[in-house]
Amino acid sequence: MSKAAYFVVFLIINFGGLGLGMLLMNNGPESDWYSNLNKAPWTPPGPVFGIAWTTIMLFFSWYLAELFYDRSSKYLWLVYGFQVLLNVGWNWVFFNQHQITLGLVVISLLLLVVFYFFITFRNDRLKYAKYLLLPYLIWLCIATSLNGYIVFNN
Question: Is pTM beyond 0.90 here?
């Protein structure tokens, strides 16, 4: 498969995952439950989330296209699939089920998996591609802190 084909495949999967995650939220960010939580003072306004996730998934899809073009394997698909499951699952756990502590566990695992991509899958050709993961890692650190704040202050 060409690099461009991988890029399209990952765009579809990643943005599809975001769409599914939004459906699983059950209108969570606008719910009375969420609006009544004590949230971190650094919680960004709603539109920032859409901009951030769009940027993240574009860069992540590009990274994945580089990675899978270089070394596609069943193991790599398994790790990526686990990442998708965690990313989509957090929305359901946190917003739909109101399981904020379990949500913190899920998002922490997601952060570890993306960091695993960052430190594990590299070679001479991919050494710069890993930096495409930085927006995702930074956002996950922020999101994890937001989830943690909610756990410890509600």
Answer: yes
